Structure formats: structure tokens, C-alpha cells
Amino acid sequence: MKFKKVIMAALISSMCLSSSIFVFAETNDLQIVAPMITESSSSLYTIQENPLHSTSQVITGELPQFTDMKDEALQTKLNKIITNLFDKKVADAKKINSPALNFQYEVKESEKYLSLLIYTYLSSGNTGSDDVTTIVLDKNQYKQYETLVDLLGPNGYKIANIKISQQMKAAPEYQYFTGDEGFKGTNSATKFYMDEHGKIIVIFNKYEIAPGVSGMPKFEIDPAMIKETTVHFSDTFLVDQIRMLPLRQTLENLGFELTWNNKIVTITRGEESHSIIIGSSTVDNGRTIDKAPLVSNGRTFVPISYFETVLGISYFADANANLFTLTIID
Fold first, then answer.
1. For strand 36-39 and strand 46-49, is the pairing parallel, antiparallel, or unpaired?
2. pLDDT of res. 55
3. Nearest by Cα to 260 from 287, 297, 236, 295
4. Are the C-beta atoms of residues 312 and 162 closer than 8 Å to each other?
5. Which of 13-22, 81-90, 108-117, 269-278 has the weakest average pLDDT?
6. Which label site among 228, 278, 294, 320 has the fewest CB atoms less than 10 Å from its CB?
């Protein structure tokens, strides 16, 4: 087994990144086409492209390789991710006798983040598969964000699910798959990156949640639109095994306004309006909640499920820190 490695220079202003391609070829007829130098519009880095060809496989494009990072362990980890990706795609191509395999990458950079997107295209007869691998780094802390929870906190998946579902509902019906083939929610394998404006972009592989004509669907999440608060376990209590949280403290920290008229509490946020009645489990046009709101020591408490099911507030209970984290996004 021959191992070929071609290094392509790439310089990132805050991190050194060099572009490389790793090719396994069973034959000795691997050819390197004359390299072509290209520059990005930002002029922060250059890419020297080295298309590679073989009679058994046609492998083109380029892959990056991190170099000269202060955190050598992180550098090794990131380069291993890229090498493993290449090995897997080459193996996949051989299994199906693919006539072509292409790698491309791009860098997205904001003041705080550097995101690397690696695209692979595996041709199979008249069709092909496109997928993307993403790496997101904090440029100042040399920290990798591997999941949406790493980036957004414990309610990260719930926040992403809400925004993605909203954007899908606003799109034409034919744009995305529905039912069992449709969007099933985000998880630790969900791909995402930070764009140049510091916004989170969740990206899916071609055919993953939509027909091929939709390409790689993308959904935007603006961290500036997220509000979060915490409530300590000691500031809550259980009633018949139902967890009750303070109403005013929790909601005002998340940008809601509350007004009292005897036992009726009106809750507003922008154009959104809700009402509850102290002592009644019926809210908002006949909906019911787990437990009626109650007053204890002059404070109103409501079941934690009310925040999520009625107000759209995601929550997470951290038993180690004895905290509830509640999050809402516009």
C-alpha cells in the first residue's frame, strides 16, 4: 500500500492552517497535476490546489492540516479527524467502485470563531452523495466545540430544534422530507459552524432531511437572540411530586412582563400574551397544566412544565450543580 501526502500552504491570521491531501493508491500511477494558487477574498489565507488522479480511483481536491498550534494535543486530535475522514471516504469509494471522489474545504472566520467545513462528493454511476464535516474552534481559547450543547449550553439541542422547526414550517411543503424521513431533531452528530457574523449555522448532508434539489439544508441560529436564566433547587419545591418554580423571578429574567389583577396573572413578551389564575390548573383558552399555580410566602409558583409547554421555554435540570437552566430564543 502506497501512502502519498502532498502539502499545500495555507496561512490563517490567528491560527496556522496548512492544506494537505492524503491519498492511498493501490497502483503506482498516481499523478499530481500542476498546482494552482488561489486566494480568498479576505486574503487571510491561500490554497495551493493539487488534483490527484489514479487509474483505479480519481481523487481530486484538497484537505487541510493544522500546524503550529499552541495546543499540540488539540492539533493532533483535529488532524486525526481529517485523516480518518479521508480514510473512510476512500474505503467507501473502493467498496462501490466509485469513479470519482472529491474533497473541498472552506474556512469561516469571525472575531471569536474559526470554522472549518470539509465537503466530500462520492460519485456512484449517475448519482452521488454529498456530505460535510465541520470543525468549530474558539480562536482565543484554542477550544473545540463538538456539539451544539458545547456551544449553546444544556438546552442546545432543544433551542436548535425550535429554530429549525420554525424555519422548516415557513418553507414550501416540497422543500423538506416529512414523516419518518423528515427532521427528527438535533443530537451529538448534528453538523454546525459559525459564520462570519458569529451566527450558528446548522447544516445537513444532502438527502438527509430534504430532496437532492435542496442541496445541503442550512438553518440559522442567532446567539444574540437567546436568553438564559438559572433557578437553584433550593428556590423551588415539590407538590405531589410536581416541581414548582418561582414565576416572577424566572420570567422577568427571560424578558417577560407580568401584571397581577387579583388572582389573574397576565404574562407578556412582545406580542405574545398568556394568563393564569392562581389556584386553577386551567390556562390559556382551556389548556390545563400539571398543577395549579399557588402562592407561598408571598411568591407565586407554577409547575416547571408550564414554562416549556405553554411559554416555549426549554429547561434542563443539573443534579450536580443543583440548578435548573431555562432558555428561550426569539
1. antiparallel
2. 59
3. 295
4. yes
5. 13-22
6. 320
Residue type, 47: I
Beta-strand relationship, 143-145 and 127-138: antiparallel
| 119-133, 174-188, 230-244, 245-259: the lowest-pLDDT one | 119-133
Distance CA 30, CA 53 (A): 6
Give the dihedral of Cα atoms 68, 71, 74, 79; nearest 10 deg.
Answer: 10
Closest Cα partner for 189 from 121, 134, 137, 122? Answer: 134
Which residues are within 8 A (CB) of 83 and not within 5 positions of it... i.e. 6 or more apart?
22
- Residue 273 near residue 266 (C-beta atoms within 8 A): yes
Mean pLDDT of 289-303: 95
Nearest to 28 by CA among 1, 6, 7: 1
CA angle 264/301/289 to nearest 5° reads 75
- Retrieve residue 266's grid coordinates: 397576565
Cell of 222: 442567532
| Cα–Cα separations (whole angstroms), residue 247 to 85, 101, 235, 265 | 49, 57, 11, 10
pTM of the complete model beyond 0.85? no
Stretch (H or E) spanning 171: none
Q: For 115-155, what is each residue's pLDDT tens digit? A: 999 999 988 765 566 899 999 999 888 899 999 999 999 99
Mean pLDDT score of the chain: 83
Cell numbers at residue 74, please? 488539540
Distance of CA 7 to the CA centre of its chain: 30
Phi, psi of 285 (to 5 degrees): 60, 45
- SS3 state at 243: strand
